[in-house]
Structure formats: C-alpha cells, structure tokens
Write a structure and sequence with these properties.
The protein has about 475 residues and is mainly α. The protein has helices spanning about 1-25, 30-35, 40-55, 55-70, 75-100, 105-115, 120-155, 155-210, 215-220, 235-245, 255-260, 265-300, 310-320, 320-360, 365-390, 395-420, 425-440, 445-450, 450-470. The longest helix is centred in the middle third of the chain and has 52 residues, at about 155-210.
Length: about 475
Amino acid sequence: MQSIIIIEFILYLVLMIIVGYLVSRRSKSHADFLLGGKQLPGWALAFSERATGESAWLLLGYTGFVFATGLSGVWVAVGIASGIIFAWLFLAKRFMKEAKDTGALTLPGYLAYRFGKHGKIILWLSTILIFSFMMFYFGAQIAGAGKTLFAVFNIPTKIGAVLSVIVVIILAYIGGFVTVVWTDMIQSVMMLVTLVALPIIALVKISEADLSISEALVVAGPSMDSWTGGAIGFSLGLLLFNNFAWFFGFLGGQPQLSARFMALRSKKEANQGAFVAITWTLLAYSGAFMIGITALTLYQGQIFDDVEMILPFMILDLFPPWIAGILLAGILAAIISTADSQLLVITSSVSEDIIRHAMKKELSEKRLIAISRLTIVGAGIVGLIIALTSKSLVFLVVSWAWAGVGGTLSPAVILTFFWKRYSGVGVIATIISGLVSTIVWISTPLDAIATSRFTTFFIAAAFGIVFSLLFPNKKEKTSETVGTD
C-alpha cells in the first residue's frame, strides 16, 4: 500500500516541477516574475487565488477544528466564505484598475504610489509587517507538510519539512508568478477533489454502518451538537464573532491574494474569476466542514494525539491505496500552493518595494530577478527554521498571521479605495498600530477573549481614520513613481 502512495507522491512532485519549468519560459522581465505581465486568464488566477488562500490550514487545521468543536465550527467557514465572496465581487475589479493606472506590482507599492510623499516609509513599514508575519505563515505550511509526510509515510517530521521546502523553493525559483499560478491551478483542482470526494465516501460508510451523526455529536460532548457551541448571551456573541472574524482578513489586505486581483486583464476576466472562486469556495468549505463532522461519527470514542491529522487518517482508512495517494497529494498541493505564493510576497517586498523603490537602486531586469531568486532561497531557509522550532498548531499560527497582515492592511486598502480623506500619515498609523496591537494581543490572554483577527482590523482602522483627520494630505501633484518624495 505504502509503495503505491509513495510512487504517486513522487509522480505528483515531478509533474509540478515539469509544469513549472515549461511555463517559466514565459517569465522574461521582473514584472513577469512578480505579477505575470497581465497575460494570465481570469479562471486560472481564480484557481490560484483559492489555492493560495487555502492551505494546510483548510485541509488539516480547519477539519481538525471542526472535529474538536462540532457544529459551532461552521461559523469559521461562514466568515471566510463571506470574505472571499465580498473580495471577488467588490474589490477585485478595483484592484485590477488601480494596478493598471499606477503600474504597481505589489500591494505595498500601490499604497506607496497613492501616498507618494510618505511612500518610502510606507514601503519600509509594509515590508517589516509582511516579513514578520508571513514568515511564520510560511513556516506553518512547512510544518503542516512535515506532519502530513510523517502521518502517511512515517517519515520523520523534520526530514519531511526539509523535502517540502526544497520543492517549494524550486517552483517559486524557476518562474516566479507565472509558474506559481499554473501549478496552483492544478493543485487547486486536486484540493477540491479531496474535499468533495472524502465526505461523500464517509457519508456512504456512515449509512452502511447504520450510524447516526446526531447521536455521535451528542456522545462526543455536551456542546458538540449545538450550532452555538452551547454558549448563550455575551459568550454566544463572542463565539460567533470570533469565528466569523476571519472575514476581515479577506478585505484586500492579504498581498498574496490581492496580487491575483492586480494581475487580472479585464472586467470579463474578473467576472469569470469571481464565478470560479465563489463556486470553489462553497464546495471546498462545505466539504471540509463535513469531513470534521463525519470523522466524529465514524471514529467516535477514538483518541487522536493530533486532531489536525484526521483528514489523512480518514483517507488512508476509507480509500484503496491508489486513490488515497491522489487524495493525499491534495494536502501537499494545498501546502505547496500557499507556501510558494508566500515566498513570492516576501520576495517582492525585498526586490520591488525596498531595493527598487525605497532605496531607488537602478538595476537591470536580470539583476532584479537574480535578487528575487536569492530572496526566495533565503526566505525558504528561514521558514524551514521556524517550522522546525515552532510548537504551535497550524490553525493557531495561521490565525496570528491572518490578523497581523490581513487585519492590518485590509483597513488600509478599504480606506484608500473608498475614503478620499485618508492620508499618508493615516496609512503609517494604520500599519504601526496594526503591527503593535497584534503582537500585544496574541502575547496576552486577551486573544482568548476577543480574537486579534477582529481587534487588529478595527484598531488599525481607527488609528488610520483619526490620524488622517489630524494630519490630512497637503494638496500636491500625484507622484510619478512609487515611493518618490
């Protein structure tokens, strides 16, 4: 059995590298390397955006979360799905237009262009913010890969993490954004197959064994069969809002996601992408939720040392080896697709935002691409170290990163798009307050009361509004280049 799965895993990795190499020949300039040169179709960008947005967190973290919490775990899916739908319907076209008008290749670069007088400070602060949290997000993906390979092949977690980093670095290194998008598209389909097929088979097994989901939930714990987790009053409000609060990280503040919007070519492509992304989201999150619930029913009474390994356990238990290998590759697909996009975000912050614009280094396209590739390797090594030394759960680490980056930059994007009085000082206040408040919040018991995914967003927004009113922009000509004085 294991030999069949190993062969399929190896074939999958080889396929990804071959596809990555073939499409990498389209990437000729630094703009191509970071944003694809506006040559990618909307449906491919949508699949890539979804594969990037969902990771080991969805297949391992969220399924394990539902297994541990029961029906109340649905509110996480409701919050995330709402955020994704909102972003594609109301923000994607605006990002596309702003990227075309400004020529910006990154989210920080766009903010710097819009507030040119304060552009350099915005670029430096954004890079510090992104690097601080995105590295831990990346590390969580590698940790998830190590856990998966250990669960499936009994490969030591550290060795699995090293192997995963090597594959991720290769894919990001050879072709940048174009390679990542096309390999993401394949991986996104594999993820969806896993999330849809597994709960269907699980439901069939439950029916054949004459098991009851409702009875299993009651046996699992006093609040497992409650959509509100047994909470009432104020506690109920906190439970619903803390779980729903993932919504705020999707409002344009995740640079690895907004890059897909910025790469769109036309309104038609944006509409096409929205349909694909929303359909994918509804199917994937319904499937992930049902995986957790059906696992509670099938394995009631069993003790799992790590609930985040429930999905690979189910796959190995319910499917023949050759199918199990394909579905398990879906987990690795989720990890790789998110991790390589995160590497590109970190890379673009260094090569495009800092070296090219903040430091104003006049370098050739070849030199910029070389710097980007060196950054990919360096960041990959740092992320591996984090993965090997961190003891936190995938779900928890991703939650912190979602607050630190998405909760901080989302209000900056929303205010820039929709409030004319938002100022450069306001952007700076937004980023600093978001960074500091997230660190303070997750370092204290406060995060257990009200999640930083919510508090960071509103603290950053409040500081941005107040400082914009106190220090409005002076009337000046629009900057010609990103980050000019």
